[in-house]
Amino acid sequence: MATDGHGLPTGIGAPATRALMEAGCTRIGQLDRVPRTELAALHGVGPKALRILTEELEARGLSPG
C-alpha cells in the first residue's frame, strides 16, 4: 500500500492521518502492538482506517494490538 510522506497508509483518509499525527504517530511501525481500542478512540479513526492499518501492520510482519 502507498504511504504518504509520513509513512502512514494513504488509504486511511485525512482525518485518521491527522489524528495519528496529533497523537505522535508518524510511521506505521509505531503502531506495532498498539491496541485497536486505543486507535479507535482517536477522533477520525474509524472502521475503515482500522482495517487498513491492521492489514498494513500484518503485511510488514508487525502485530496489531
Give the key terms.
3 helices, 0% strand, mainly alpha, single chain, globular, 65 residues
Protein topology:
Elements: H1 14-22, H2 36-40, H3 47-59
The helix content is 40-55%
Write down the secondary-structure element order: HHH
What's the structural domain tally? Answer: 1
The radius of gyration over CA amounts to 10 Å
Which overall shape is indicated by the principal axes computed on the Cα atoms? globular
| Overall SS class | mainly alpha
**How widely separated are the two ends?**
20 Å
Strand content: under 5%
| Count of strand segments | 0
The major pleated sheet works out as: none
Number of helices: 3
Unreliable stretches covering 5 or more consecutive residues = none
What value does the average pLDDT take? 90
Short description:
By secondary structure, this protein is an all-alpha fold. It has helices at 14-22, 36-40, 47-59.
General description of the model:
This protein has three helices and no strands. The protein is globular, with a radius of gyration of 10 Å. The model has no long low-confidence stretch (mean pLDDT 90). It has one domain (10-59). With 65 residues, it is mainly alpha-helical. The chain has helices at residues 14-22, 36-40, 47-59. Helices cover 42% and strands 0% of the residues.
